[in-house]
Amino acid sequence: MRRSHLFLAKKFGAIAVLFYLCRKIFFMNKTFVILVFLYILLSACSGSEKNSPSSDKQAKGHICVENTCQSFGAVRKKDVNDVILKFNLNNTGNIPVTISKIDVSCGCISASLSSETILPGAYQVLFVTLNQKSQIGHINKTVFINSNADNPIMLVRIKGDILE
């Protein structure tokens, strides 16, 4: 270090000197610093592909639902007690998918599956039942499906209108 740097180090500390030198280098060699920064950034981005598993090497389950939002239209309260809708949950992945939990957004709906496991290439039917006794007007409810698939949380919705 030069004498002036030693003087600064004694007076302000080593961190101040380091900051001073970095600032001086940056303003003198902006192009060099920018190129080094871009090199580090690009090498970090390209290196992440080597460490991430490709879809060919690692088998995963994947749940697909053809129609994630179903409408039951308009129903009269006196005509129907419960509205039942079906959703087909397809496993398009390579390994079986296990449904660990099904949550609903409201106590007025319930959801049930015939089996918790969906084999590759197969499907299970999810039955969603709306008890519309205490409901009136426009309905928009959600069912949350938790699983071990690569898309661990799936959402399905039911919509419609309940008339008096």
Average per-residue pLDDT, rounded, comes to 79
Number of beta-strand segments:
9
Low-confidence stretches: 48-57
CATH architecture of the largest domain: Sandwich
CATH topology description of the largest domain: Immunoglobulin-like
- How many structural units, i.e. domains? 2
Q: What is the overall shape? A: elongated
Radius of gyration (Å): 30 Å
How much of the sequence is in beta strands? 35-45%
Proportion of residues in helical segments: 25-40%
What does this protein look like?
- This protein has two domains: 3-51, no CATH class; 63-163, Immunoglobulin-like.
- The chain is 29% helix and 41% strand.
- It has three helices and nine strands; from the N terminus they run αααβββββββββ.
- It has a five-stranded mixed beta sheet, with no helix packed on it. Strands 1-3-7-5 form a four-stranded antiparallel beta sheet, with no helix packed on it.
- The longest helix is centred in the first third of the chain and has 22 residues, at 30-51.
- The radius of gyration is 30 Å and the shape is elongated.
- The relative contact order is 0.17.
- The model is unreliable at 48-57 (pLDDT under 50).
